Automatic annotation (TrEMBL):
One matching Pfam family: PhdYeFM_antitox
NCBIfam families: phd_fam (TIGR01552)
Organism: Bifidobacterium aquikefiricola
Family: Belongs to the phD/YefM antitoxin family.
Extent of the signal sequence: none
Transmembrane segments: none
Protein name per Swiss-Prot or TrEMBL: Antitoxin
Domain of life: Bacteria
InterPro entries: Antitoxin_Phd/YefM, YefM-like_sf
Protein task: Antitoxin component of a type II toxin-antitoxin (TA) system.
Amino acid sequence: MSLSSALSVMDRLVPISDFNKGHATKAFERAEDGKPIFVMKRNVPTAVILSYHEYKGLIEELEDSSDFRLAAERIESDDNTANLSRSEALHAMQLNESDIEAAEQLEIS
């Protein structure tokens, strides 16, 4: 580890006692740059402060990873007996392409 990267890591450490001294705002502001702040208690990391944007990005990556893993498991265990083509699925639901185009855009969460 180079000296500059060591200094960069050291700059991201905040003693928990700073929160008792009214310096919490500074720690939160420093986290807004997208880099985590490590809260130290007795020289041991006890918490991490992230910006909301960074947290949301990590959660999305975790969800994407979980979705990918589930899809891979399904593909691997697929015996291909229950798969329908798009046209077969539309026909089974008594829909056509114009129905799909006319439908409102829905967000499923």
